[in-house]
Design goal:
Layout lengths: L32 H5 L2 H9 L5 E4 L4 E3 L2 H5 L4 H7 L6 E4 L5 H8 L4 E5 L2 H9 L4 E3 L12 E6 L10 H11 E11 L6 E9 L20 E6 L1 H10 L3 E8 L2 E7 L11
Parallel strand pairs: 3-4, 3-6, 4-5, 6-7
Antiparallel strand pairs: 1-2, 1-8, 7-11, 8-9, 10-11
Length: 265
């Protein structure tokens, strides 16, 4: 998903990772939870399996969201991500669940989390284990996930990449793997206030934002590969690999080793 989650029952029995939830909540808020869950255009797009759908900035700038791809089966670029998944997998912002469902079909323990009720229901309908929850809320198996995924632009969740990478490190086991999809190959590093919109169009195709359905504003970030790797280095992540597939850019990062200061109590 580009996209993302609060509380809900556990997903289907295909998830075999630890399910304890007694971990203290992270300090960063899930500022976009209500925005995604209240974004009717997003829910409508998932139900219909297609867009148009955008993230819209206050000045009218639009970022297209690839709903058709999210609702489809994993493509060749997704396969390069799935091949790098080891141990139990946490898909952060799983959307309609194509990656978690694919892992389940392979017999791999995996859980998706998303702030959208519609996305979680869609993921579960595909046989994926999914929870309606923010990455910044308490989650099952904290500190024991083998791989975490931030795909489809989800490194933008919360509008603070450094905080998101820090949270991912806390979720992974020591030296666990994070697979991240960057927003661009160039050095993009933007903080945005956006909302989800269906970008209603007039009879000549002109966008008519005043007629579009849209959700409330929330913080987001766009991070290119160079900026992503800077954030990773500052957080003591080790770059393991980087690659391009299907015009999309990815990096695999190794989480910091656990220290007495960072070890869960």
């Amino acid at each position: 998903m580009i996209v993302p989650p609060p509380r809900g029952p556990a997903g289907p029995a295909t998830h075999t990772a630890d399910t304890d939830t007694d971990t203290a909540p992270a300090s960063e808020p899930a500022a976009d939870s209500a925005a995604w869950d209240g974004a009717d255009p997003y829910a409508h797009a998932l139900r219909s399996g297609g867009g148009p759908l955008f993230l819209r900035r206050h000045d009218g700038w639009l970022l297209p969201l690839e709903v058709e791809r999210w609702c489809g089966v994993p493509d060749g670029a997704d396969v390069t991500v799935l091949r790098r998944c080891t141990g139990p997998v946490l898909d952060i912002g799983c959307g309609p669940g194509r990656l978690v469902a694919a892992l389940a079909e392979l017999g791999r323990p995996a859980l998706g989390i998303d702030v959208s009720t519609e996305a979680v229901e869609h993921a579960r309908s595909r046989g994926a284990a999914a929870l309606r929850r923010s990455v910044f809320e308490p989650l099952p198996g904290e500190g024991r996930w083998g791989t975490a995924l931030l795909i489809d632009g989800n490194v933008g969740i919360g509008g603070d990449p450094a905080a998101l990478l820090g949270r991912a490190a806390a979720l992974l086991r020591p030296l666990g793997r994070l697979v991240v999809e960057a927003a661009a190959a160039d050095d993009v590093d933007e903080r945005l206030q956006v909302h989800v919109t269906d970008g209603a169009r007039g009879h000549r195709g002109a966008l008519l934002p005043d007629r579009a359905r849209h959700g409330p504003p929330f913080p987001w970030a766009r991070v290119g590969l160079p900026a992503l790797l800077r954030y990773a280095a500052a957080g003591r992540w080790r770059e393991e690999d980087r690659w391009t597939a299907g015009g999309r850019r990815f990096a695999a990062l190794r989480a910091p080793a656990r220290t007495p200061r960072t070890a869960p109590r």
